[in-house]
Amino acid sequence: VRSRPFPLTAGRPQALGPEQDSVCVSWELRGSQGRWSRRGCARLGGDSRSSVCACSHFSTFAVLTALRPLPASRALALVSRVGLSLSLLCLLLAIATFVLCRPPAGLGVTLHLHLSLCLFA
């Protein structure tokens, strides 16, 4: 059964600046973990002092505001890709070392091998 979205109005103590933006979110619980999610909520409008949101479910709601624009950084993306590649290469070498150079039956080596496999995955 789909429910119709219902409007919510949230005010803020300080007016938003020209470069600032706000997003309507609700708290989504998954197991014992939770996070803010845009699923089921949309910002319909408002002004610099309030936001009007439409949500299709009952939950804990919030309006998140970016205090300054968050530009996409090519340098950060490059560093992340290089770091991830090097990490995977080192984990692969560690896995190969644990598999090919096995000392006499040791629980420590098995634990390190499984840890490396989990991190690689």
Structural notes for this entry:
With 121 residues, the protein is α+β, with helices and mostly antiparallel strands. It has 2 domains: 6-55, no CATH class; 71-119. The chain is 34% helix and 32% strand. It contains 2 helices and 6 strands; from the N terminus they run ββββββαα. It has helices spanning 74-100, 107-120; strands at residues 6-11, 21-30, 33-37, 41-46, 50-55, 61-66. The protein has a 3-stranded antiparallel sheet, with no helix packed on it. Strands 3-2-6 form a 3-stranded antiparallel sheet, with no helix packed on it. Strand 4 (41-46) and strand 5 form a beta hairpin.
- The amount of helix comes to 25-40%
The total beta strand count reads: 6
Largest sheet, in brief, is: 3 strands, antiparallel
Radius of gyration: 24 Å
Total of DSSP H or I helical runs spanning 4+ residues:
2
- Ends distance: 38 Å
Net shape: elongated
Structural domain count:
2
Query: What structural category arises from helix and sheet content?
Result: alpha+beta
The overall pLDDT, averaged over residues, is 79
Strand order within the widest sheet? 1-5-4
Strand content: 25-35%
In N-to-C order, the SSE pattern is EEEEEEHH
Which residue ranges are poorly predicted, with pLDDT under 50 across at least 5 consecutive positions? none
